[in-house]
Predict the structure.
Amino acid sequence: MKFEVLSDSPRVSGRKVLGIALFEDFARSDLDVIPSSLAVLTWMSMPRENFKAKKDSVLVIPLADGEVRHIIIFGLGKRGEAAPDDYRKAAYSITRHAAAKGADTVALAIPGAEDRTISRCIGEGAALAAYRFEKYHEPDPEDVFAVPAYIDVLRGNVDGLEEGRIMANGQCYARDLANEPGNVINPAVLEDSARALAAEKGLAISVLHADELKKRGMNALLSVGSGSATPPRLIHLTYEPVAAGSAKPAKSSIAIVGKGLTFDSGGLSLKPADSMLTMKGDKTGACVALGTIKAASELGLPIKLHVIIGAAENMPSGSAYRPDDVIKAYNGKTIEVNNTDAEGRLTLADALAYACEQKPDAVIDIATLTGACAVALGDTTAGLFSNDDKLAQEMLDASAASGEPFWRLPMTDPNLRKKLKSPIADLVNSAGRYGGAITAAMFLENFVEKGIPWCHLDIAATDFVKEPYSYYIKGASAFGIRSILTCLIGRAKDGAI
Ligand code: BES
Ligand code: MN
Ligand code: ZN
């Protein structure tokens, strides 16, 4: 897919579909950007078809002849109520409809496209329309796979479109990884994927294997992976803007820590059969972290980025860790295991402590951590926790701009914190069902160095789309990646971007 920006009317030659987005209060002059003959047709068709540009409504106008075969109009709803996500949905929906009509080129006339952030949304929406995971079967004949090769955005902003394309590509890369089943991606293969990415993007990479983890005392990560035939590992990638060819030196350094459970069976505290389904997605945090560093390097962001992944497979076996085990984590704290299915927080414990050693300005972890978070917020809103109000607000603003809803949950209740107390160790790893997302976040806080701003994103359930919505098809969403990237772009402002 190639984006082009046309400052004026679409070149008719080769343009097969023209897409227009309109607010409900549209006027004839809103059609001035398109050739007058098409504008006349559009203007006459809308009242005839009773099209009012209501939010998310679509009108397809087939044309009798000429190179533009269809005009597709997308309703943006009330002008004052438009959110950034409406522009993503407009570009996505028009691109999908254009694909259904067999178009090889679509021209998009979307109001506000001159604006860089709106063009970024348009770029994201159009690029997300191309995503399918068809590796293991023939494409569904009912589905239209091929999207137009060329997307012309009338009066668009080139930089914004390119940013959007890179962000969506990072997201689709993460979705491809997350969609792979546990028999294809195990911790060793996740390492291979990280190495391939590092080689392609010129990133530094170091990987700690079991012997090294043992030497350093990363027993929490080791314990979780001990039941699997594939040992765990800690993967650390670094993006340094200047080393990677960006003109600007780093303005800030951020560590992204991703939960990387390539499969979560629950371990000896085995999950019921149905709850195990989609647990190949328990590595989504890691996939998001990898997609983030890929996109950040392509954007040339003037930010130093660490990506840290505790990769493991949680399996029951004779060598598996057990309920009642007491583990000493990397930072010296001892943990009594009362549920081997609360494994994510154990891998994150070591990964977070390691991340803090890099002395970043902030740590963001992203994890499919608790079913309780999904129970609290549903499967299209994710949880956000932080020890720092400023960082929390920064991430919430990025979330609002990204169309990925996050909701901050409190870490203030001392009665909940008490539930993490163990009679024989510093902590237990699970504190029951009530407030389960919060107690998980409180557990993690024990492994974050005091004074380092930290934000924890719980994407359990938002990571895996069961029924298509918005611009998501079924399967891995890589939810959260655009919020993190938007936060990084925000930090880079006044710099290279
Ligand atoms: N990976 C799961 C959380 C999860 C649940 C992700 C549903 C996506 C969808 C996590 O490791 C887990 O098993 N958490 C337990 C914690 C409990 C034992 C304290 C849970 O949520 O039940
Ligand atoms: Mn689990
Ligand atoms: Zn898990």
Summary: The longest helix spans residues 158-179. The domain at 177-494 is CATH 3.40.630.10 (Aminopeptidase). The pocket of BES (ligand 1) is lined by residues 264, 282, 339, 341-344, 368-372, 374, 430, 436, 460-461 (CB under 6 Å). Residues 303 and 358 are 14 Å apart (CA to CA).
